[in-house]
User: What shape does this take?
Amino acid sequence: MTGLDPREILPHRDPFAFITTVDEITPGESARCSWVLTGDEDFFAGHFPGRPTLPGVLMLEALAQCGAIAALQDERFAGKLLLFGGVDKARFRRQVLPGDTLTLEMTMGRMSARAGKGHGVASVDGDKACEADLLFVVADAQ
Assistant: This one.
């Protein structure tokens, strides 16, 4: 399943919507998305002046948004809000720079009506930038 607009799935909006395209989804199992970094993003101006670098915490958030896309396409989570529950085994391998396209891949693991987990990898041109296990909790959207 591809061609979906991330804004039709996620509640996130600018300036905190990081998914540019949804490239592949297997509902409740996995998703592959992309985040095209134009260099115009506000955080590059301050992180770091003269040497702009994508903050690692934003890579984790982008992975979480990718995982939420996979989970929210599962009927069990329709109309729900997925919140960060934790991060385990996060590792950052390379800088991500203005002009890069960050490929985000999340594989969902255990998922219940109240919580779940997934494993994510963010890469640029096949070169791993970040890897982490993410935990989420399920809340009512209203």
